[in-house]
Each structure stands twice: as C-alpha cells, then as structure tokens.
Write a structure and sequence with these properties.
The chain is an all-alpha fold. The mean pLDDT is about 85. Helices cover about 85% and strands about 0% of the residues. The chain is flat and about 45 Å long.
Length: about 80
C-alpha cells in the first residue's frame, strides 16, 4: 500500500468526520461531540498532508515551509480570537 493511497483513505475518514461535526454542531446537546469530530478530522487531514509532503521529495522544503507558515498564521488567528 502506497503513501498516496493511505492519505486518500485518511482524507475520506476526515471528510466523514467533518460531516459528523456539522451534524453535531447543529444541536446544542451534541455540540461538544461535534466539535471533537471536527478536531479529530482536521488532525487526520493535517497529518496525512504532512505525510504526503514528506514522502514527495521533488519540492519538499518549499512545501513544508508553506505548510508551516499556514499553520502559524492559523494558530495566531486562533489565539487572537481567544483574547
């Protein structure tokens, strides 16, 4: 089994978790569970993206750099909203 096929399967699982997240967030009683589905789905999607990036050696450094910058911007925006 190749890294690309594992990443594709991981993206499918992440997509399902995102759908479950939206369904869970639609009701107040299940919002925590919906939030958890979203967090797990995003973690799976990010991990598979990083694995694909590391596996592809053609433009590894540039892609990892862009990915790190995007994660840092997202983290900074998240911290901004918390304050």
């Amino acid at each position: 089994m190749s890294v690309a096929s594992i990443a594709t399967a991981a993206y499918l699982v992440a997509a399902l978790l995102f759908i479950l997240s939206l369904a869970g967030l639609s009701k107040h009683e299940s919002a925590r569970q919906g939030w958890l589905y979203g967090v797990v789905g995003m973690t799976i999607a990010l991990a598979s993206t990083v694995a694909l990036t590391i596996h592809d050696s053609s433009s590894r450094s540039a892609t990892i750099g862009i990915l790190v910058v995007a994660v840092l911007i997202g983290a900074a925006r998240s911290e901004e909203r918390r304050v």
